[in-house]
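Reopening this one. Same input as before:
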Amino acid sequence: MGKECVICLTEPRDTAVMPCRHLCMCSECAKALRFQSSKCPICRQPVEKLMEIKVKSPEP
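Same output, byte for byte:
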């Protein structure tokens, strides 16, 4: 499984679906999902909350 969003396949994954904890979407696709569907794109479990994960790049 790659590191790109399972919906747009271009942006990096940075949003987890709760309560199933699938880290599978970018923030833009997650925003769109909130208005179109209420199910996780991986397991189809109902979405209670979306959690954006910010990853800090290591300093050189």
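So the earlier flakiness isn't reproducible anymore. For the record, The mean pLDDT is 90.
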